[in-house]
Amino acid sequence: MTTTTKPDARWAAVRAGVSRGLLETKYSIQEPSDFIWYLAFPVIYVVVMLFMRGSTVPGTDFALGAMVLPSLVGMSIAFGGLQGPAGTIAVDREDGTLLRAKATPNGMVGYLVGKILMFTLTTLMSLVALVIPAVTVAGDLRLDARTWLLLVLIFGVGMLATVPISVALGSLLKTAGQTGLLFLASMLLIVPSGIFYPITALPEWLQWVGQAFPYYWLGLGARSAMLPESMVTAEIGESWRTFEMFAVLGVWAVVGMVLAPIVLRKMARRESGSTVAAARERYMAKGY
User: Fold this and answer.
1) Which ranges carry the ABC transmembrane type-2 domain (predicted)?
2) Partner of 167 for a Cys bridge, out of 227, 254, 260, 280, CB 3.0 to 4.6 A?
């Protein structure tokens, strides 16, 4: 009789997480409300860029839409990874999904892998819905092999840097209704992140605030991939800081991957069948 070693058990949990992530993505896309949510912001961004046609960055002949699009790409990656998972965790906590994961060997590892995969795929869908039509109205962009390779790397690292952190934050929420606080926090973090306004025009203390979070670095990375070299003058130190960008996002990824399973396990220890039932009753009492 053979026994399963810990590494084998963890790989089994990872494989289970991949299967779970694919299934959850399928079900989420088939849900009309979720599908509309994934496409709503890309459609809004494209409409805004349509109104920018013919406009240029003040003092230059560079298309305004081309200047804005890369920042929107970076923001969409960060928003997809930071906002969605937290709300899902709160719902899974109330309906007993996390309780079942706790009862499975290495279940939290598989659960986390599934969430990373699901939100990677759904965020990718939103990005495709944004980029394909937007590039037709945003001239002057650099779209070569380097651009696409760098965007793929930024997207992958961005998901690893944001989804685990969002899972950890979602584990701290007591109800799904509290996810609105994270949405508000995300909106506030966008302000000093150089997404809609050059970060170099902000006060220095706000620049440091922006550089502490993934929004700025993902926006910077997308700009470095899609904008011509001449536009680097608007950045801090007149540099794309590619190494620093990957380093900071890498730190966020490591912190998230370490913290998320710990916070999930601690939260799951407090869960029981009675607490899940009570949460479900509160949920139904609200008329959902």
Assistant:
1) 33-267
2) 260
